[in-house]
Amino acid sequence: MRLAEIKEKQGTLERELERDVAKSTTSKNTLQQRILADDVAGEYDEDLEATPLAALDVTYEDDVDGAGDMIDLGIQIGKMRITERIGGLSRPRISEEISAGIANSQPPPPSMEEVPEFLKPGEQYIVPTSGFFFGQIGESPSIAQFIPFRPAADRLIKQYFVSAHPIAPCAHRPTLEATYASFWEEVNLGFEPRPSMQAVIFGAMFSGAISLDENTMFPELTGYTKAYLVASLKLGTETALSKANFLRTTKVETMQAFIIYMLPLCRGEVSRAHSVLVGAAVRMAECMGLHRDGDAYGLTPLETHVRRLIWHQLCFLDIRTCEAQGPKPVIRRDDYDTKLPINCNENDLTHAVKPPESADVWTTNTLTLIRFEINEMMRIIWVDRRRLETRRTTLTAVLTKIENFRRRMTEKYDHLLDVTQPIQRYAKCVMYLLTYRLHVMVLHPYHSNAANPMPPRLNQLLITSGIMIVELAIQLETNPNFRDWAWYLGAYFQYQIALLLATEVYFRPQSHHADRIWLCLDYVFNMDRRLPPETKAVQILSEIQGKTAVYMRMRKMRGPTTLSRAVPAQNVVAGSSQSMHNPPHLQQPPPPPPMVMPQHVPKAEPGYTPPMAAGPPVPGPQMVFAGVSDGQALWSLPPSHSSPESDTSSLDFGGQQNIHSAGLRGMAQGTIMDTIDWPTVTSLFPNDPQTGGLVIQGFHDPNFTVANWTT
Q: Is there a contact between 607 and 651 (Cβ–Cβ < 8 Å)?
C-alpha cells in the first residue's frame, strides 16, 4: 500500500510537470480553451458504501410498452418529476424505501381516481415525431402549411434571440440573421428554400415559440395561441429535417438544425425517444467529423466556432438524456478533440481571418463556456460513479476532483461576472447550481444506507449543496430579471434533490438548516406554510410513496438480484434519534444471526463518535443492530472507546447523535469507511468557526439565499 501511494504521488507530480511544460509553450487562446475537467485528476481508494437499493441499470418486462408516454416520464409531484431514476441512478424500490420510514405516520394511499393526473405528461413534454426521421411518412408536406405570417415569424425570431440564443446558442447570430433574410427572399420569390435552411429557421422559430411567456401578449402574434405555434412549428421543423435526409446528411447546417430543435425538447420531461434520437445524432456528428476541431481542417474561425457550438451542445444533450433515461453517456472524453469556443463576442468572428484573442471580460460566449465546462465535468462524474461501483476509484478522489474543478471555475469565471447585470447574475447562478450539483451526483447514493451510514461531514456537504441548488433553481425560475430565460430551467435541474431534503428534515427535524430546507420544500411541493413541519413532512413523503407505488407497478422494471433482495430500513437517515416518526415498536430488530467476531473497529471521522444504535436491547449483550443490507440483518459490536480524533461538537446535526454502525460482512473484511482520507476531506471542506458548519462558498451569500427574495 505504501509503494502504491508513492507511485500515485509520483504519477501526480509527473502530470503536473507535463501541464506546466505545456502551459509554457501554449498560446493564450489554447490555454483558455482547455477544458478544466481535463486538469483535475487523481487516484485514491474507495471509502463509502452506496445503498443496495440503487443501481446504475435496470431492465423491463416485455409487456410494458402499451402504457404510452407516462411510463417514460414518471410522476409529477409539485414541481418535481421523478421516475425510477433519481439523480441518474435507478431507485425502482423508492416507494418501499419511503414506506419503511413513515410506516407509523402514513395517511391513506391516493385513490385510483387520482392516478391519471399525476401520470400525465406535463406542459413541458414535447415528444419528437420519430417517423419523420426514419422515413415513415409519405410525401413531405409543403412548407406553406407551417410557416406563419411574416410579422409573426419576425416576432418569433426576435424571441429566439432574446430568450434562447443567449443561454443555449447553436448558431452565430449575425449569420443566422442573414440566413433568415435569405429565407424570406426565396419564399417571396416563390422558391422553396433548401431543406437544411428551412430546418434551421423553423427550429429557431420553434424555440422562440416554446420560450414565450403565456402572460405576455405580442400584437404580431394576435390570432395565434402558443400551443398552435409550438405544434405547427415543431411539425415544420421535423418535415424540413426529413427533407434534408437527417440520417444520411453530411451538411453541418442540417445537424445544426437538429440540435436547435432538440434543445428545447430536452428540458423538463425526457422520454426514451429523445434519448434514442440524440444517440443517433452523436453517430451522425462523428461521421461528419464534428468531434474533430475545425483548426485541424483549416476552416475559418467562424466555421470552427459554429462546429464547436454544435458539438458541445450535442455533448450536453448526451448527458441530459442519459440522466433522464439512462444508461450512460454515448460520448467519451477520449473520443474527441473539439475545443471550447473562444471567449469573444460573436461580432469578432463575422469576418475574422484568424481567431480573435480570448478576452478576460464578459462576452456573448461566456455563459456558454461555463455550461460546456461543467458539462464535461459531469461526463467525468458519470464515469467515476461507475468506477466507484467497481471499486476502481474512491469517494475521496472524486470529491477532490470536484472541489479542485469548482475552485478553478471560480477563479476563471467569477471575476468576469457583474451581478448587477441580469444575464451575468443569471450566469453566476447557473454556474453555482451546476457545480454544486456535482457533489449531489456523487454523494446522494450513500445517503440512505442504514447499514453503512454517511459520516456527518459528508452528510452536511450533501445537504448544504442540496439546499443551495434548490435555492438557486427557485431564483432562476422566479426572479423577474430572469423572466426571459426561466423556460430553460429544466435543462439544469429537476428538483429531485427535494426528495432527499424532505427525508433529511423528516428524520432530523431539528437540523441547523431546517428553516432553509422548509422554504425550499414549501416552494417545490406547494405546501401550506401554516402547517406544522412534521405534518408537511408526512404529507410530502406519503404522497411520493403512494404515487411511486402506482407508477412502479405499471413500470414493471427488473433490477439486479442484489437490489431485489435488499430490505429497506425504517430509519434510512442513520444518526437520527428516536422520535415520533420512529417509535420503539417500529425499531425492534430481528433476531441476530450467529455471532462473528470482527477483526477491528473502523476508525471514525473527526467529529464522528459512534455510539450504540438506537432501539431496545437485543439478544447478545454486546451486539447492536446495525440496519439491513442486501436483505440481511446486520449486527456489530459497539465500539468501547471513541476515536482519539473524535470531537462530537463540530458536525452534529441539530445536536443529535450520529450512529456509526458497520455490518459484520464489512467488519470482517475491513470496512470501506476505514480508507477515507479524512485530512484531505477536512482540508477540502473545513469547518466555519462562526457557524460550526462547513465552509461552502456562496451558502450564506444574500444574493443566493431563498429567504431574501421569495415571499
A: yes
Residues 114, 542 contacting (CB under 8 angstroms)? no
Q: Are 645 and 685 in contact (CB under 8 A)?
A: no
Q: Cell triple for residue 428?
A: 453566476
CB 310 within 8 A of CB 302: no
Residue 385 phi, psi (nearest 5): -65, -40
* Mean pLDDT (the chain, rounded): 76
Element (H, E) at 558: strand 557-558
pLDDT in tens, 438-481: 999 999 888 866 667 788 899 999 999 999 999 999 999 999 99
**Strand, helix or coil at 408?**
helix
Q: Mean pLDDT across the stretch 140-154?
A: 89
d(CA 83, CA 498): 14
Angle at 575 between CA 569 and CA 579, to 5 degrees: 80
- The model's pLDDT over 680-698, given as tens digits with 9 standing for 90+, comes to 999 999 988 887 788 888 8
Name the amino acid, one letter, at 431.
M
- The type of residue at 203 is G
Whether the Cβ atoms of residue 128 and residue 274 lie closer than 8 Å to each other: yes
Task: Give all strands (DSSP E) within 314-432, no chain letters.
Answer: none
Do you find a cis peptide bond into 356, omega within 30 degrees of 0? no
pLDDT at position 494 over 60: yes
Burial-class residue 417 by CB neighbours within 10 Å (0-12, 13-18, 19+). buried
Binning the chain into helix, strand and coil, the percentages to the nearest 5 are 55, 5, 40
Q: Say if pTM beats, i.e. exceeds, 0.90.
A: no
Residue type, 40: V
Q: What is residue 262's predicted lDDT score, i.e. its pLDDT?
A: 95
